[in-house]
Fold this sequence. Notes:
It is globular, with a radius of gyration of 25 Å. The chain has 18 helices and 13 strands. It has a 6-stranded mixed β-sheet with strand order 1-2-3-9-6-4, sandwiched between helices. Strands 5-13-10 form a 3-stranded antiparallel β-sheet. It is an alpha+beta fold. This is Ent-kaurenoic acid oxidase 1-like isoform X1. Keywords: Heme, Iron, Membrane, Metal-binding, Monooxygenase, Oxidoreductase, Transmembrane, Transmembrane helix. It is a single-pass membrane protein. The chain crosses the membrane at residues 6-25.
Amino acid sequence: MEDWGFICMLMMAVFGGLMGLTSLLKSVNRWLFEAKLGDRRFSLPPGDLGWPFIGTMWAFLRAFKSSNPDSFISSFVNRFGPVGLYKTMMFGSPSIIVTTPEACKRVLTDDEAFMPGWPSSTLTLMGRKSFIGISAQEHKRLRKLTAAPVNGHEALSIYLKYIEDNVIEALEKWAGMGQIEFLTQLRKLTFRIITHIFLGSESEQVMEALEREYTVLNHGVRAMSINVPGFAYYNALKARKRLVAIFQSVVTERRARRKENSTAEKRDMMDALMDAVDDKGRKLDDEEIIDVLVMYLNAGHESSGHVSMWATLFLQKNPEVLQKAKAEQEAIVKNRPPGQVGLTLKEIRQMDYLSKVIDETLRVVTFSFVVFREAQKDINISGFSFPSGFTIPKGWKALVWFRNVHFDPELYPEPKKFDPDRWDGLTAKAGTFLPFGAGARTCPGNDLAKLEISIFLHYFLLDYELERQNPSCPLIYLPHQRPIDNCLGRVRRVSPSSVRKKD
């Protein structure tokens, strides 16, 4: 009995020691980041700064590698109440997670108060001279340079035919290939399109090499920045290095070609970047051009490919929605004037129901679930549930959590339900629908992305269906939400491919 009592006392002592050590470790980040704030720390939102150095990253990764990624934010709500802002430490920095529409709008649109705050690991992968790393002034200049060639009416009219031809060719090819990874093929298609826009007609080998490296790069963007062999971030850094080498060879070859023939017709975005001159007569150097290319080509194919896949899956899971969308596309073809071949921008703008399908897909999937900003001064943000306001201290990150806004049942009843009809007569208020962000740094290729998705769905709805190999396949959520098998299945033709031939 005495031995048993001693063992019990020993176990209690060990347990108490572990609890004390845990409490001590959990206090380290408060000492490091809150103590220096003085009285300002009392106006911080509630939350959890987590463990030393890693913060709450383990909890974040555990949630997003489970079947319920929203459990990460739910844990904050359950512990601290639905206040909308929560302090934490993620990606190596003390941060405030922002989850309400009003607060999201403020952070994204107040450029005097907030600047880009992406983790240093992400900046290293995307490039410190890319859009996410440059100053507001440089961003404004580069955005002005690139927006019209990507999103302007004239540009979209030019790209439409190229996109259309590639979509038709790809669908015909996939229908004859048997079993394919639908998402992988869509990403190849959208990558071919964005590569054509920026680089012109590069070789098939160059495009395939670039696409492979981007796949590896993206797996490291939301991973912990552990630069050790075997970890995603280590592999992503190697992919970044190989991407830069490929782009450098392309840029060098283009500069040599332009030098030999200075009067040659300017063909693509690469030429536009090389011709860009600021008000001081300064041109972009190779590093700046390469970083812009790395970011644009990545963003320009990942979102379009994934959203096209999810829209296809949602349509096939909801037969009534599919029939309404298909009837709209058939009516557009039927009402064409004699002699017209292919789609026009006017017809795409008449796709009212398909536009709702795409918007609902963007909401449910929330391709980019968070963006990063950094407070340039102490900022007080107030709201309905926190009228006195909370402080985001200078130098702290603001993590704008789009996913939480898009799944807010007060804004979108039954938020997990795919329901395009919810957009009937609904004009989303500022901060409530953020698939492409908001403010001056809204995704510059949003119109091009929706154009690609619309053209793909138009031809898919008219002539094809997808037969999935594993309809109940588990999902993964990092770096983006997708079936773990990349949507393995067969594309089947369901009607004659005669739409364009008949026109």
